[in-house]
Every structure is written in structure tokens, then in C-alpha cells.
Amino acid sequence: MIDLHFTGTPNGQKISIALEETGLPYRLINYDIFEGDHLTPAFGRINPNHKLPAIVDHDPPFGGGPHAVFESGAILQYIAEKTGRLLPKDPRQRSVALQWLTWQVAGLGPMGGQASHFLRYAPERYDYAIRRYTLEMQRLLTVLERRLGEADYLAGDEYSIADIAVWPGRSAAGVVNIDIGQYPHTHRRFSRIGERPAVIRGRDAERAIPAKYMQQQARLTPEQWSNMFGERMHTAVNL
Q1: 216 falls in which pLDDT band (50, 70, 90)?
Q2: Residue 215 DSSP SS3
Q3: What share of the chain is helix, strand, coil (3-state, %, to 5)?
Q4: What is the fold, at CATH topology level, of the domain defined by 91-199?
């Protein structure tokens, strides 16, 4: 059994989708990040960075008792290696899959997050920041579009954790007013992946993104701001 410490965000959905794809049994433990559920000392012992998602595998393949894994890219790779699925066996395609996975967690995801922050949460409008991160996200989507014009999936012919990492980000694109329809190869692949039964299960019901996380102009209480971006979040690592 795997405990999935989860909140309904694109990063969280990466992991619920991967677990559904591989059929690993898991227990969903839902957190409300607006309310600061992720800032407790108990969760800090699972993820010292106090971010979601994270997992605890109670039956790791190498034995030795429960094993915690944090950071979505590392979790995806762990699940793939544990199950022998979602990573190509061919070493060249495996390398390509890991390159695109790293590209998502180091580039596309963070740029989308920054664009979203300055558009939705910043107390003042910072036009430079909005333009800088939105343009960078558009540039990265152009890179993605070119790749998906060359291959069925990011690794080549085989669906992998790289595709799972990228797919939930279509929600972030909508939040920052980027129409995925402008990228036809990407739009077509996203639509096809979205029809997979495991993807539907991985983002259904309690795994769905809450409406309050999708507000175009979020209005947080002082406590929520502190939990997300302010003092409580910054001091959690000192508890």
C-alpha cells in the first residue's frame, strides 16, 4: 500500500494518474493547502520541503520499512521503476522520456506556476512579471508542440511518465489565458490522453482540482496568504 499525500493540483494529479495507470493500491490523504494542512511537523517528516504531493510506500522494493518520496518527478520515476511500467525498456527512449520529464518539472511547470501567481494572486499587478512568465510558458509550449508534431508521445512511440507529467498542465494553461487549441499537435495528444480510463480516474471526485484553486482572481484571507506564500509557509521548515 502507498499513502498518497495529495492536493488537487496538476502536480498532485500527476501522481494519482500514475498510480491508477500502474494499478498500485494507494490510500489518498487529501490536504487543503489554503488552510495550511501541509505545514505541520508530521508532514515535514515526510517532505522536508512541505510541498505536495508526496508518497510513503509501505512495501518498497528494496525492503527496510516504509519509504517516503517527495517531488513529483522523483515520485513518477519511483512508481515507474517499482512497477516496470511507464518508462521505455529501450535505453535510448528511456533517456528521452527522462529528459522530457526533467523539462517539465524544471521548466514548463515552474513557469506556469509563476505566470499563474502574478496573474491570480499578486496583490499588485506587475506587468513585467506577467509578460515575462507568460511569454516563457508560450515558448515552452511551442517546444512541446514541435516535439508532439514529430512523435506520438514525448518518449517516441510509448506513453510514459513524461506524458503524465505534462498532461495536467493544460489546466494551468487555461488559468493564465493560453488557449491550448493554438497548439494543434499538443491539443490532439492532450485530448487522446484525457480519454484514458486511468487518467479519468486519476482526476475524478476527490482527486479533482477544487474550484477555489482555479479562480482567475483569487482573494485569499490573511491566514490563507500566510499558508500559501507568507510567514507560516516560510517558517514551517523551522518547526
Answers
A1: confident
A2: coil
A3: 60, 10, 30
A4: Glutathione S-transferase Yfyf (Class Pi); Chain A, domain 2 (1.20.1050)
